[in-house]
Structure formats: structure tokens, C-alpha cells
Amino acid sequence: MKFKKIGNKWIVRIDKGEEIVQTLKQFCKENKIKLGTISGIGATDRVTIGLFNAKHKQYHSKELIGDYEIISLSGNISTMNEEIYLHLHISLSDSKYNAYGGHLNSAVISGTGEIVIEEIGGKIEREFNEEVGLNLLFQEKNKTN
Questions:
Q1: 135 with 34: CB under 8 angstroms?
Q2: What is the pLDDT of residue 142?
Q3: How far is residue 68's CA from residue 42's CA, in Å, rounded to a whole number?
Q4: 5 Cβ partners below 8 Å, 6+ apart?
Q5: C-beta atoms surrounding 113 within 10 Å
Q6: Alpha-carbon torsion, ordered 16, 19, 24, 30, to 10 deg
Q7: Helices and strands (DSSP H and E) totals, the chain
Q8: What's the domain count of the chain?
């Protein structure tokens, strides 16, 4: 991984063989980024995406192996229990130009990953919401305007 900071933005290159989610989580931790947005593009050959079933409050995951272009990687950075929390979604295309997408669980870079992190000053904590079944921003007891 290589990176450079320009203003409040970090330009990050994730290298072949590095896993996106863990690399970005560690990067945010080391650079004390507790709130921000993430966007990126690149290539992967092993990715696990998920879809949340709201009725049953469960994630269903699917692993894709092969050559995939990362059409779009987007998400946000917050904290949960004082730890860095990444919420990422990904869109992919295969060699036949079929598109796939969902919540990003993991992806290993096969060529390069080009990521932009926009750091936002401050911190927003997440909490698990029993009714929805997800870790949500702005729980009532933590709500700020």
C-alpha cells in the first residue's frame, strides 16, 4: 500500500494480494480517521459480497472467484465500541460484462486498488438496533444534530 494526503483527502493505492477491508480498516486506525467517506476502483479475483434480508434480519453472502473489475467501491467510516467501523458496498463486472454488487465483506486485489478517503473531523458511534437487525448510525441515546 502507498498513500498521500492532500487537504482532508487521502489517496490510497492498495497493492496486489492485499485484502481491501482489512487494509483500509488498519489504515484508518493508524491515521486516526474516525469519520469519513470512501470511494474507489480497481480489480479483484476473490471477493465476498453480501445482501441483507430485512425480513429475517440476516446477511447472505456469496463468494465470487475470477477476474472482476471493481466498477465502484463506496462507503463510510465511523466507530462502534470505540473501534473503526467500515460500511462498504461494491459493484463489480466480470469478463462477460455482467454486473454484481452488494455489501463488501472482503476482496483481494488482483491488480491495483485506487481509493480516495475523505476525512471528516469528528466521530459518530454506531450501535446495534434490535428492531432493524443492523449496526446503525445515530441511535437515540447518541443522537446529535
A1: no
A2: 46
A3: 9
A4: 11
A5: 25
A6: -90
A7: 1, 8
A8: 1
Q: Name the residue with cell 465483506.
A: 105
Please give, one letter per residue, the 3-state secondary structure of 81-136. Answer: CCEEEEEEEEEEECCCCCEEEEEEEEEEEEEEEEEEEEECCCCCEEEEECCCCEEE
Q: What is the CATH number of the domain that holds 138?
A: 3.30.1330.80
Distance CA 114, CA 52 (A): 27
- Helix, strand, or coil here: 30? helix
pTM of the model: 0.91
Range of the domain at 69: 2-142
pLDDT tens digits, one per residue of 76-110: 999 999 999 999 999 999 999 999 999 999 999 99
Compute the distance between CA of residue 115 and CA of residue 120 in angstroms, rounded to an integer: 16
